[in-house]
Design brief:
By secondary structure, the chain is α/β, with parallel strands linked by helices. It contains 5 helices and 4 strands, in the order αβαβααββα. A 4-stranded mixed β-sheet has the order 2-1-3-4.
Length: 282
């Protein structure tokens, strides 16, 4: 009985050690990718900040009620750009994104532009209409691809396929902290006037409405690319943290199993000695 128990424990230790090797390898891969992902994310920030400021200034100056990019209309349908992961094993990274979409959309009619294999699979499984299921790898999406997507999204908004465009992504705050954000891209939200801030008189070569029309594709492409970089860095960081935790848990489990194995072996030895002594006394 003790021998069988010891054999089971040894097999269990071997299984956990194999799992630990996998989680450790995945942690090292994530660590090596994270530095490059953070650099790409940081490099995408300046353009996004400048573009956001320029778009906000143009929106404040635009008084033309016919410009759809600025003036809200009755919302019959929304479109969500949902950026999730290419793979799992990243803790609650993907689940948190999908929860944010569900909480924000509630019972509203909506379609999605899923980015990342997990997003494509989820919305396909639940039958949510998708603009395209082509983008299953977040890591490989370039700025050029984002410009193509921006044209697709603008055409859908202008043709009234949807009346609002929202971006759902994960913002990288630190190695241990990531936050899911839901930002409205279209129509543009005019910034609240700050009385303490001196007004900036921006000179436009074109009318603000024309400026918005020409700049909007580049602005959306920049916002989308920055969100992709943020999300990918967040995914890698979440995976690294999850694999680090899994490796530590596996190490603790192996220690516990070895303790049980030593106790079982000690019990088996004690039983054998007792049987030998009992036989000698007879």
């Amino acid at each position: 009985m003790a021998g069988a128990s010891m054999k089971d424990i040894k097999l269990r230790i071997k299984s956990v050690e194999s799992t630990m090797q996998i989680t450790k390898a995945m942690q090292l891969v994530a660590t090596s990718k994270l530095r490059r992902a953070k650099e790409r994310m940081e490099n995408s920030k300046p353009f996004t900040a400048i573009a956001q400021e320029a778009i906000s200034a143009a929106a404040m100056k635009c008084d033309d009620g016919t410009v759809p990019f600025v003036h809200p209309r009755p919302v019959r349908r929304r479109c969500y750009i949902v950026i999730a992961g290419d793979r799992g094993l990243a803790g609650g990274y993907n689940a948190n994104v999908f929860k944010a979409v569900a909480a924000h959309a509630q019972d509203a009619d909506y379609c999605v532009l899923p980015m990342g294999r997990k997003a494509v699979e989820r919305f396909h499984r639940y039958g949510v209409p998708s603009l395209t299921d082509e983008y299953t790898r977040v890591e490989g999406i370039t700025v050029g691809t984002c410009h193509k997507l921006a044209e697709l999204l603008i055409n859908g908004f202008l043709s009234q396929t949807y009346d609002e465009l929202w971006l759902v992504y994960t913002s990288f705050l630190s190695m241990m902290s990531q936050e899911v954000k839901v930002d409205r891209l279209l129509p543009i939200e005019k910034p609240a006037e700050d009385p303490s801030r001196a007004p900036v008189d921006t000179l436009y070569e074109l009318e603000p409405a024309e400026t918005l029309e020409k700049v909007m594709p580049a602005y959306l492409a920049g916002r989308l690319y920055s969100a992709l970089c943020d999300s990918f860095a967040s995914e890698i960081s979440a995976r690294r943290t999850a694999m680090d935790s899994a490796t530590k848990n596996a190490g603790e489990m192996i220690s516990d199993l070895r303790l049980k194995f030593n106790r079982a072996r000690q019990g088996a030895i004690t039983q054998e000695i007792t049987e030998i002594v009992a036989g000698a006394e007879q």
